[in-house]
Write a structure and sequence with these properties.
Elements (H helix, E strand, L loop, with lengths): L1 H20 L9 E8 L20 E2 L3 E11 L5 E6 L8 E7 L4 E4 L20 E6 L4 E11 L3 E2 L3 E4 H36 L2 H20 L10 H26 L2 H4 L1 H25 L5 H25 L5 H27 L6 H71 L8 H12 L2 H14 L3 H8 L5 H12 L3 H8 L3 H15 L7 H5 L3
Helix pairs in contact: 2-3, 2-9, 3-4, 4-6, 4-7, 8-9, 9-10, 9-11, 9-14, 14-15
Length: 534
């Protein structure tokens, strides 16, 4: 009931946040036009040679090259400030210029203190943002110049008022606080669960969450506040992505128990593939530190199909023997992939309302909650089964100890039987009896009905159906033969049986032969093997 209430409240929260993020920015009441050009290799000094054209959108998938965006604006009668923004969350290389009408050349709008970063946005925010200040009746031209090394660019620009930008920042910050706060909360929950149960699956998921957290810190620009260069942060993000992939696949194999289900597939394929591909990519990245980033975008995006294939194969391998775990896994993963897909579609086609990155965040939150909950359920079931199994093992150990003690008791009493038999044989008129007499002597002198019943109870606890099935299938067996077969079933050797019954080994052999005839066993069938079937 508590879990349902939690999920209901959380779903309502996500829905409310999504609705709040879908409100459109206020349109500005001035004349302006955006134009753009792609793959023009001119620099800012050759601005006059650039041919700008109108466009519908600048949502460019894995674009490599230069991008020019020009804004021509005609202000009204009042001085105003506006913001130019877009949804390019993965590219920080934006330079911002204003056209100097006297020299007819572009001048940098110096809104950053560190020009070496090549990031001239007004505020350190995930979305590129550039403030423009206009005097009354001012006509101005602004230019955004960026270059991409192959990453996705959603650079369709918007011109919004400062009030709309403040609202945009507030909504984005609410999402960020909710998202980061939930990750930290679930991270603490998983750390607590790991310390409590010492299950390796929690450790994999903890590192998976940490890698996710580091990725989002990079994507949303928080790492840039540390004063690091863009190339260093790019390398950190790529390593975080690789760690994320490694932990996700290891977590998947642990969740579905792939190592037990398909040990060869796990040890000889998955581990080696992860070691070679991820290790090789990281070595390449670090050796070619200054040039590898441009190629890693293509390479890692191509490898994403490989990782999806591995997860799919792992699911298929575990489908038969891990149905419950698979059902839990697919619920969480499917919801995650659904929102990721919505975000990617919206990033390219703008079909759904809101920032595409919000859908990816929702998918991540749903995945984290789902896996944390299902891991808790599975581990509880595992521990419950383990406790029951431990109780059964302990019970079995105790019964075996009692049986061993009873065996020692039989051996001890057999020695006493030998002494009594020797005393009787020395008496006048008394001779050694046959094997049946010895068995009766054992029953009467050393193994009372109470002792035999106690022995049968202990034996039946370990072999519940033996005596019942043996008597049912062979009702003509005598009580003595049943005892003999019981000792053979336990595993006593012929010599040990002779000692227990205080008879000669040959007598045991004859008794075994008579028992075999009653059981109607062929010569090729072992008596012990036959008794093991009961």
């Amino acid at each position: 009931m508590k879990n349902r209430l939690f999920y209901t409240h959380f779903s309502l929260l996500l829905f409310a946040l999504l609705l709040s993020s879908c409100t459109k920015e206020e349109t500005v009441n001035i004349d302006y036009t955006f134009t753009a050009t792609l793959n023009n290799k001119a620099d800012a000094n050759d601005f006059n040679t650039v041919d700008f054209k109108e466009f519908e959108n600048l949502n460019l998938g894995f674009y490599k090259g230069n991008l020019w965006i020009k804004l021509e604006v005609n202000n009204g009668n009042k001085a105003n400030s506006y913001m130019i923004i877009n949804n390019d969350n993965f590219n920080r290389k934006y330079a911002f210029y204003k056209l100097d009408t006297f020299s007819n050349s572009l001048k940098l709008v110096k809104q950053t203190t560190d020009l070496t970063k090549r990031d001239y946005r007004t505020f350190n925010f995930p979305n590129p943002n550039f403030k423009i200040d206009l005097a009354p009746q001012e006509q101005a031209t602004f230019v955004l110049l960026t270059s991409s090394d192959g990453r996705t660019i959603n650079a369709t620009p918007q011109l919004i008022s400062m009030e709309s930008y403040s609202a945009f920042i507030s909504k984005t910050m609410i999402w960020s606080v909710t998202f980061m706060g939930l990750i930290v909360f679930l991270l603490i929950v998983n750390i607590y669960q790991w310390k409590l149960h010492k299950q390796k699956i929690h450790l994999y998921y903890i590192f998976y969450m940490l890698a996710t957290f580091l990725m989002y810190l990079g994507f949303e620009g928080y790492l840039y506040s540390l004063g690091l260069k863009i190339i260093i942060i790019d390398h950190v993000i790529f390593i975080a992505v690789r760690l994320w992939i490694l932990c996700l696949i290891l977590f998947t194999t642990k969740f579905l128990d792939t190592k037990a289900v398909a040990p060869k597939y796990f040890n000889k394929f998955i581990l080696w593939l992860l070691f070679i591909v991820l290790g090789g990519t990281t070595i390449y990245q670090l050796i070619f530190f200054n040039s590898s980033i441009a190629h890693l975008h293509y390479f890692d995006n191509t490898l994403s199909f490989l990782w999806l294939g591995i997860i799919l194969i792992t699911i298929l391998v575990s489908a038969k023997s891990r149905k419950l775990e698979l059902r839990y896994y697919l619920i969480s993963l499917s919801l995650f992939l659904l929102f990721i897909t919505l975000g990617l579609i919206n990033g390219h086609f703008q079909i759904f309302p809101g920032n595409p990155f919000i859908y990816i965040k929702i998918g991540t939150m749903v995945e984290f909650i789902g896996f944390t909950y299902f891991m808790t359920v599975l581990i509880k079931r595992k521990l419950d089964r383990g406790e029951n199994l431990d109780n059964e093992i302990e019970k079995t150990k105790n019964l075996k100890k009692e049986l061993e003690a009873n065996k020692d008791k039989l051996i001890h009493t057999s020695k006493e039987l030998k002494e009594k038999e020797a005393a009787l044989s020395n008496k006048k008129g008394i001779e050694k009896t046959d094997v049946i007499g010895i068995l009766k002597l054992l029953e009467n002198s050393l193994s009372t009905d109470e002792e035999w019943e106690e022995f049968k109870l202990k034996f039946t606890a370990l072999n519940p159906n033996f005596l019942e099935q043996l008597s049912k299938k062979h009702p003509d067996l005598t009580k003595s033969e049943i005892r003999l077969l019981t000792l053979i079933k336990i595993g006593y050797t012929q010599k040990e049986i002779a000692d227990i019954l205080s008879i000669a080994p040959d007598s045991v052999k004859k008794s075994r032969s008579r028992a075999r005839k009653k059981l109607k066993l062929q010569k090729s069938v072992s008596l012990s093997k036959y008794l093991s079937k009961f």
